[in-house]
Amino acid sequence: MKNTSFYLLICLLFCFIATAQKKLPKNKAQILKSVEDHKSDLINISDEIWTHAETAFEEYQSSKLLADYAEKNGFKVEYGVAGMPTAFVATYGSGSPVISILGEFDALPGISQKAQPTKEALEEGSSGHGCGHNLFGTGSLGAAIAIKELMELGKIKGTIKFFGTPSEEKYFGKIWMVRDGLWDDVDVNISWHPSSSIEADVQSSLALVDFKVEFFGQAAHASADPWNGRSASDALELYTTGINYYREHVKPTVRMHYHIQDGGQVVNVVPDYARLWMRVRDTKRSGMLPVYERLMEMVEGAAIMANVDYKISLISGIYEVLVNRSGGEVMQKNLELLGPIVYTNEEINFGKKIQEETGKPPVGFDSKIKALEDTRENPGGGSTDVGDVSWNVPNINLGVTTAPKDTPWHSWAVVACGGMSIGHKGMLYASKAMAMTMVDLFENPKLVEKIKAEYIERKGNEVYKAFIPEGPPPIPNH
Ligand SMILES: [Zn+2]
What we know:
This protein is an alpha/beta fold. It contains 13 helices and 11 strands. Helix 2 (26-52) runs antiparallel to helix 3 (60-72) and helix 4 (133-152) crosses helix 12 (421-443). The N and C termini lie far apart (76 Å). 49% of the residues are buried. The structure holds zinc ion.
């Protein structure tokens, strides 16, 4: 009797597997296999990038790890593109369609953290992957490789490109790559971001502009002859006071932040130099520009009051993301095919401990597939240089859970999850979802046309112009 039950169970199990596999078309089943085949390599690369935690334009080891793995897998790699030593393009295949995928890999300063659910630096004062870009770059490469393997099997035709895009967090490296026309021959671009939920992302982001303000005065003894001094830090204080009054008179969608980088060195010298990094954002570039103009005019006012000279330098500015709902719908279908991420008890406890440590309700993970949202006119949130790519080629965006619900982003908690199985699971899930979406694009030219038509309609008459100074990107000197 026992034996009969056993065989019945095995039979049912096979039936179940057969039905489950039936649901997934062959090419997509092959994608899952490819990602699983590369699983241990992808996890190792991601963990190495996590450990290096290299910041803006310093990501030499991280970008090399990705570029080398792409090359090892048969991609042609062009390293150091658009004047950035750590930017690269890895290409496989030929002809159309040309589908590309973005990979970031830069870390954030000052948030080093061990892969544990309580706050403790891996290396005190050092950087950490508080935005999960170790997973971002590696997960995207995993997807590109799965597509390449399908091409090798002769199942799909066209070109796959992986863009290694440095310094997302500080200088927005993609702007220089866009300015150099690197997406000009691409039909559709795919991107994702580590998150605390799973969704085909059809929300835009905020446009922003960064500029530097410098004041130049005259140094003097702060007590013996202050009448001989003209204080650069007086101008800086007057300027920030003006900014803070101005806040009341801008639209609620506007955000202004500044970072005082130099306000003088010692207390007994009237400072002859002061410097501030200024950032303005709005949900639309068109709303941000007049605020930017006004903030530049105010610099002169502060300089007149303090009787000092000033200089304003543009650092860079980025566009809000141009949403593509037709693309989002394709991604959504593939998420529903894949289903939710399943966590072990150990992982759930790790997540709950993080929530406890960061003062959030201990509810664990949001790992269900969210329904496709309506696109909001004025979304909240941050900014990304994916925006600039999205005004040059239709872009499909994905968010995948790599940290527990409500985790404070850009924090130690995100670093912790990105260096262990919670982050790895999200990363491999993203590889699969993005590669499955690309399969649809390679198989169905009509879908690509539909996505392109929506892009053209949404872009309207806007003529894209990279918002950066002439010349090369601001690569630090060594
Ligand atoms: Zn990020």
